[in-house]
Fold this protein.
Amino acid sequence: MKKKLFKIIGPLCMMILLSACVNKKEAVDNNENAEKKIFVVSSFNAMTEFAMAIGGDKIEITTIVPSGVEAHDFEPKAKDMKNMSKADLFVYNGLEMEHWAEDILKSIDNKNLVVVEASKGADLIKTSKQEGHEHGHFDPHVWLSLKEAKVEANNIKEALVKIDYSNKSYYEENYKRFEKELDDLKDEYESKIKPLQNKTFVTGHAAFAYLCREFDLHQYSVEDVFAEGEPTPQKIKELVSIGKEVNLKTVFTEENVSPKVSETLAREIGAKTETINTLESEGNYIETMRENLQKIYESLN
């Protein structure tokens, strides 16, 4: 009787044990697949913000240019090359913002890397001949336009869909949500800024041409588009004159640009200085652009 019982129970136990092992393996495999994320390398903070807005919890991201460093001036390190060699996606602005991007792409061995030049397809603003002599012929600060930010975010979305088509609807929903946030912010400040008589402001460097085009504002700057060179005495005199003429209350300076000249200019005019964020180093995109617009709006009243 015991032998018969063993013949029945023995195989049954083996079947249960094997089934448990298979189920455990499937659970481990499913867990690994669920946790596997697209590895994204972005050039600087604004590109990281766009990628996170679209990629959400489907991506793991690292930013090449550290906080407090100008993307124009940065030189990639060995760790950046290593990250690029194993990345699924590389996101950069383009337009000579990251002069090192082309060299780093040539030097790595990563045939599966998808590369997104986020500014592709944007409505670009030409720089002056002097400004564009070494850096290209277009203002690279595309991301500081709420309208052009949609172009950059859409380019990133298309790349993520290409890499991970099974989650296409997820990326598209995230893009629609981000697009609505951008449109709502634009509508809010259009209604505030449009009635104003004075629409002139002064910045440390000429990073806000796209934003000005969007809101019919006029930007004067201490330094040029690429924040290079010291302003001439004639330039300072001109800015003082403009500031007094429009009763300028604020001279803006940026997070990565020396405030010394802006502070001198502000004293000459009788204005205060305040920091405005170009999102190159830090800041949530929507929140920071709202803060920028609010500061500009208050300075014009």
